[in-house]
Amino acid sequence: MSTVQKKLIVANWKMNPTSQKEALAIFTSITKTAAKLLKVQCVVCPPFVYLSPLAKALTGHRTQLGAQNVFPEIDGAYTGEISPKMLRDLKANYVILGHSEVRRQGETNENINLKIKAALKVGLIPVLCIGEKERDDAGFYHAVVKEQLEIACQGISKAGIAQIVIAYEPVWAIGKDAQREATPAESLEMSIYIRKVLSDLYDSKTAQAMQILYGGSVNPKNAGYFLQDGGVQGLLVGRDSLNPKKFEAILKEAERLSSLPLALIKNIK
Ligand code: PGA
Fold it and tell me: What angle in degrees, to the nearest 10, is found between the helix axes of 109-121 and 141-152?
């Protein structure tokens, strides 16, 4: 089974935990569980400083590593920045781009586009985060997501876009201050809309083949609902990815659902 068909479960640790010892403990637990799962690709995105020690702890495990951001140049005089090539060198395969917490600090769609191009150049898989701040009754949030996608994809070929993972993360459903949880129906609606925009930009075959994730307050209770009814092929998990018990429960739920015949999945609620 290829990686593309597996459910993709991505851990976004954000600026946590605050010690390498804790990072290693969480990671070791997660990788042990993930190693037993055949239908799930687990990706852990720690803060940059933990990539190297975690890469060393990874030997023989199926889990992959990712970063939470990157600079859009390969090398040069850019004080304080991290290049995509450095991430590859540390065995990272993925990079989260356009996360709302980075956008909040001034990240633009245009800069995200440059970062995607730089990541693709060195073979890093971008996990492009898109999502509206609010769901307005007039449906303006569609335009927000459309613009995010259109600018992020500018100048990227069909072959390039096929390498990208898209994470739909409604900002209002993220973090401990979330207004509320999103519903699988809201995720489904947006996953269809995202594929429509991509179909207009590229073609329907390309759009259908894209891997779309849902992110925002994913937990062991709702993970299965998003995977069954949310129109997505994976999840981006924040808070609950720092709790090995909860994150491993999410991984196992993804494996369980991937192992069920389709007809059965439809009947489970
Ligand atoms: P959360 O974060 O799961 O804590 O809501 C998700 C994210 O920001 O990627």
Answer: 40
pLDDT for 177-187, tens place per residue?
999 999 999 99
Contact call for residues 40 and 254 (beta carbons, < 8 A)? yes
**Ligand 1 atom at minimum distance from 178 CA:** 5
State the catalytic residue, choosing from 101, 132, 142, 169.
169
- Site residues for ligand 1, CB cut-off 6 Å: 12, 169, 174-175, 215-218, 236-239
Q: Give the mutation target among 174, 214, 247 for probing the ligand 1 site: most ligand atoms within 8 A of CB.
A: 174
Cβ-contact 246, 223 below 8 angstroms: no
Please measure the distance between the N-terminal and C-terminal CA atoms of the chain and give it in whole angstroms: 27
- Residue 263 or 116, more confident: 116
Query: How far, in Å, CA of 56 to CA of 87, rounded?
Result: 14
Amino acid at 188: L
* Chain segment 217-252, per-residue pLDDT in tens: 999 999 999 999 999 999 999 999 999 999 999 999
Burial of 183 (0-12, 13-18, 19+ CB in 10 A): middle
Are 13 and 20 spatial neighbours (Cβ–Cβ below 8 Å)?
no
Pairing of strands 7-12, 64-67: unpaired
Q: What is the pTM of this model?
A: 0.95
